[in-house]
Amino acid sequence: MKYIYYLSIASLILCCSCKDSFLDENPTGELSESQATNDANIEGIVTSAYAVLDGQYDSSSSGLNSGCSNWQFGDVVSDDFYKGGGGTGDQNQIHLMEIFTADPTCKDFERKWLSLYEGVARCNQAIRILEKSQYSKKDQRIAEMKFLRGHYYFNLKIIYNQICYIDESVTEISDFPKVSNTQYTSDQLWAKILNDFQEAYKVLPETQSEAGRPTKYAAKAYMAKVYLFTKDWKDCAAACDEIINSGKYSMLKNFRDVFLPENDNSSEIIFAVQNCINDGSDNNYNGNPGDRLLPPGGPYRSYGFLRPSQNLVNAYKTDVNGLPLNDGTDVTDNDNVDIRLDHTVARPGKPWMDMQLYNWTPREKSVYGPYSPKKRLVSKNSSYYLTVWPYTNALNFYIIRYPDVLLWRAESAIELNDLGTGLKYINMVRERAAGSKGVRWEDVSGAGTGDAANYKVGLYTSFTSQDQALTALRTERRLEFAMEGQRFFDLVRWGIADQVINAYIEKEKVTRTHLVNAHFVKGKNEYFAIPQSMVDQCGSDVITQNPGY
């Protein structure tokens, strides 16, 4: 059963406000210290720190601009997806992100910054109150807050790079605007983020009775992810080994089953944001706000945002052995393809979940092509789908899946030149794909029988070089995690973002003219601009803008 986090009356009283600045921790009401450390109120403020995991930190419908899926920060700016929607003027600031011309006034830059720092502020406030309390769950709740704070700061780091670091020791409001984003080096920031996960790991239990609370292994997985981003391959390998050897996690048999709401919090999920509908929240905003414009609802069959690129679709083509082909040509109905393609992308003439064939004309097809997103959408026939505005659903957003850990282990092994171990874990992920059920004509009544495409996924037999192994690893991450907000951050940490994205733009702009003026600038576009409003409020002597903006 899904565990639902909600904003209780206590948390509404206690949680800090970001209306004017992420640095402002003025509560919306006042409680005495004895009231604040009351067990029920403590749980309220702890819950409030969880409540912003989805990126919805206020009652604005603009939560889609700060959602936890990172759909614009991790997908739209990569080679996997176009912005989509009703043309380039619809959410135009995200179009500017897509072509790498967005400036520091971009709405999404500001809302994402505010939502993440709201999460940090709530964690800090909870830690301060917990430390003064005699609450029986004090140590575990502090560990949970440190885990969440690490999560919020991790996202701030990979999006903005040089960030302001504020922990629970900063209590005077007058001191907040003095916290510089250059106080710590990049390495020092990573060390602080890692420390939160390490402290959480020491205390958190191996299992939690309430789904959505982090476990010891979730903390260890996030430690592995920090090691991955800092290229600490030995520690990354060791952390992954601990999780793998725990026996706590396994992949579901079928790839599609992972993304059915009824399977949320399965054996494959290490940490997830808990989404829900019809829970009494304002406008059902506890559904994933970042996906609000993706579901098959509203005035269109699909709102048309987050449209798969031709480049992504082509990446799923396989050769006679079922291995990625990468021949530079567009997929046809006669080609072999990876099973994950039609579970990730809606293609013309193929079954659209259990509803119908995908045979309608998507919004602005002439601009964004014929494909639509599919992996994280929920059928209108599902009880987990909201058929009225804001058309959200109750599918959780997965922060870390078990295949993440397997491929991190593979990557660390390959970087350490242990190609055999890399081969083992890449093939484990591919083996699940190979054994998964493909999209079938009988998924839609009356459409026919049998597979809807020539599905073929094979295993690698060996790697003859480190470069070949790294190419296989990077391809596998793309195929497995497309539409999960990870691709751009992978390209950046691999140091190949400029090469991959500019090559993608050069080819695709011939048919996708909205990309004609797009160009990735090395040394600038790896990170996003710090919101101009933050620079204006704190002063340029405190907040240093990222290079090139």
Write the layout of secondary structure elements.
Layout: H1 9-14, H2 33-36, H3 39-51, H4 71-76, E1 81-84, H5 92-98, H6 107-132, H7 138-160, H8 186-203, H9 216-229, H10 233-246, E2 269-273, E3 305-308, H11 310-315, E4 317-318, E5 336-337, H12 341-344, E6 345-346, E7 351-352, E8 356-357, H13 365-368, E9 372-373, E10 397-401, H14 402-415, H15 419-435, E11 454-455, H16 466-481, H17 487-493, H18 497-508, H19 532-538
Parallel strand pairs: 5-11
Antiparallel strand pairs: 1-3, 2-10, 4-5, 6-9, 7-8
Question: In short, what is this structure?
Answer:
The chain is mainly alpha-helical and 549 residues long. Helix content is 40%, strand content 6%.
